[in-house]
Model the fold of this input.
Amino acid sequence: MPDSQTVTEVFPEKKQLPLQGLYLDQGLVSMSAKLQHALVLTTYLTDQNGVIAKADEHGHFRVPPETRNASDWRLSQELMAQADALIIGGDYLRRLSASARHPQDILYQFEPGAEFEDLGEWRLRTGYEKRSPDVAVVTHHLDFKIPERVLGSGRRMAVFTTDAMSSSDQARAFRSLGVAVLGCGETEIGRAHV
Done:
């Protein structure tokens, strides 16, 4: 009889598997190499009405408390642990910089003493060079700070923004810190207009 900490695999054979560690054996890196394509994974949780996030009292979108659970968050971390780079938005860094706002940790969770330190150890045992993935930021505006802990961790960081922002003083300041800043379109990131 399965319990809440196991899942039933039905293919290629029916068997019980522990929930923790379920995604670590997926071999995403070798799957990407075999396909000769990058894999881009996204993970999110919705309620029965398809709601991913709700605005809080300050107008910032967050995962609703009623849809949060430790098992889903752990599985999400197992996927992130296999990433070469995490893609985040500039809004995440703005919230991280604001003292009153505390987004869920997706930058340091694999570091020593953090909640998912074991997954940082898994990364090192599995052949990743660093405990935590590199960081890619997609944003229209550069009105955020680059976290010192990321800069000092040996991780690479790249910011993808509009062409105009990539020529700004803030972009030059980021580059002086070793952050790559790339212009990726005139008005929309990734859509250069001719």
Notes: The helical segments are 28-35, 70-80, 90-97, 117-126, 148-151, 163-166, 169-176. The first helix runs from residue 28 to 35. The radius of gyration is 19 Å. Residues 162 and 189 are 6 Å apart (CA to CA).
